[in-house]
User: Fold Iron complex outermembrane receptor protein from Pseudoteredinibacter isoporae.
Amino acid sequence: MALNKNIAAIVSQPKLLVSALLIAASPAAVAQNQTESHSLTLEEVIVTAQKREQNSMDVPITIDTFSPQDIQATGALSIIDIHRYIPGLDVGEGQLTQAGISIRGISSANISTGGDPSVATFFDGSYIPRAATTVSFSDIQRIEVLKGPQGTLFGRNAAAGVINIVPNAPGEGDYGFVKLKVGNQSLRRVEGMANLTLSDNVFLRVNALSNERDGFINNTGTGGDPGAQDNSALRAALRWQLSDDSELLLSYDWDKIDQAAPHSIGIGPFALNTNPFSSTVANDVVNGGEARDMQAFGVKFNHEINGQWSMKALASYREFETRNRTDGDGTADISRYIDTDNIEDSDIFYSELQLNFSNDFVTVVSGLNYSQEDIYQAIPTTLSTDSLMSFQAGPAVLNLGGASLWDPNVWAAFSSQFTGGVPLDQSQASYTLVNQILRAAVDPNIPPHFFAPSTSGDLYNETMFNRGDFENYGIYIDADFELSEKFSLALGLRHSIDKKQFSWHAPLSEYAQANPQLGLHNLFIRQVDPTSASKRWSKTTGRVVANYRLTEDSLVFASYSTGYKSGGFDSLEVATADLPIDPEEVKNVELGFKGDLFNKRLRAQVSYYDIRVDGSQRTIFGQRPQDAGAIYYVINGETDNSGIEMVLDWLVTDTVKLGLSTLYAKNESQFEPYHNTSGELVANELVKQRFDFQDNYTATLDWSPQLSKGELNVHLDYIFTADRLRGTPDFLDSFAAVPGYGADRKRLNARISWTDSEQKYELALWGRNLTDSQFVSNIGGLGINTINTPVANIEQPRTFGLDISYNF
Assistant:
């Protein structure tokens, strides 16, 4: 208890923490008599980007890696935490179960389980879908981000690229670690790993993680404090060395999230505050929260047939249940209550058989894969009957009447307009009479029934239920020919087949069924009788890659590759039963350079890409004429993106290393007509975005001065992203008045650590967003127009704390 209090005292005082950081990094802290030598290096990173182990600098693909050292320096817990360090990668922040992923401007569609992402995510060699992609980083060997179409070797949904998460496998020997991370907002993260030798040829590795943190926004309502975290993970892996040529690996993963709902900060006139950075909100979501229960079983078999032939086989089964019930109005006003949820109960079986051949002239990777996925999804929208009345009335009527037609004073003034100045009572008959007058004189599209305030406080729910059965088959071959000592040529082909069966059912709301006298009909989710559809898509994709080695440590490459993402169905739009979402077909031209230069002091990775997407899928948050409020739906279009990505690492001295990652991007898209959040039809829209090198970069500094005892490491990184929001199709002029909206992102992060001479103990002080930069990342909400309840999301404020770790 005393230790916990002392730690809490340190991390709860920013001035004390900053002072400690400065003292630790000052020249006085560095011993004058240097007896131990530690040098920074440009480390060799082994990857499996081409389904075989290679040095990343020898792979003619644009690939970025995130190492255990990077995870430690940044405190990353999932892919959400790493995208700012990898140019061209974007991951939606704030929702672990609904994190959209984009590579080079090619993004995934909405929450619909009937569609697929444009970026494929793999964990331990197996494909993982949707909510599973944010698996916790515990005892991870590396994360690989492969850019551009990777369908030849990775197949399913790798149209824009691949994220490959590689956990550590059991090794020989007995060793492990224990790590503790504490910080402000009551952060408590504990992680441990143990690697055990069970016999001469059987090895076990077990790791576990627990992470808890309080919310960074105080909620005066009943929905919990936004930003709170609570997740745990466990993995056990067994390696059985059957012979010198064969090994069998078995694994089990468990991952659980049960935390506060994603924050919805009200910024409208009915919210507690109009400033999103007031640190206090009033959210009243009933049973709100974000949760995921996930487990997976895996098996791998590797066998060396002879000196040239080898085979690999793997299979995995993963199941997960999620929910994400979120406040949709940003207020604690019962007359404006809205919440949304995304419930999923799904499982996926993935398998792959690989046969490889290698000699001095050619390396061949070939294989088959099969996956089958069962999906259940429910998408509820819940309103209070008070807010339902406002949606029934619509903005035109509310503009005539006032904020709420159930307010006695508003109703008296409003109804007297139709009765010669005599206000009506608040009986059901009076509301029905006014409704008939309004339909005849103002708007015939007004729903044919208003209902009286006698039903106030009840909850009204509409839900879309979906089920899906998806199968994917693939066969591929990729051959890399060594045509000379310096020149090689790779050719690859894959044929993919996708079969999807999908169903919709949106019954009349239970509240309407229980109160037939009100004459209610579904507003947000149109009533749909059980409907099903099926569709088959297939495509042959490939790649051609020319690779020329300039020196032993540098190469250039040129490639042409194609990618494919199957079509699908929109969970909320039954019309896609007859008109499914079109597939995405991708063509990409790429030129690249990789090299360690100047006696391996400077590592440079530079790529130019030109990517075209036919049938590009885009999620719209808009209000069509048939919708009571803005909803998400999917449209198709064409996208042409090009750019230059650059990653530089410069070993200035043996103790100082600088890094820079940046990109230049030019994106153009044209989509079919759609309705925006204001209900306006947008047609023939050409969306153009351009980002210069100075608009998006991450700079890093690592310093490891020599000490008389132990090892000191100082890490700084600065992340800058210029405003991207004002040029997007979802931007409305009214957003510009919101503090922090459209501001440039500026993040300064630091970590200073000391490790003892035997590498057993580590102590570290760290800080994230040290300048406390404020930024609004999104504005929306189902009631943004009809009942004037816009909500915003913000990024996490300054955090700081202490790390302690022990290796054994």
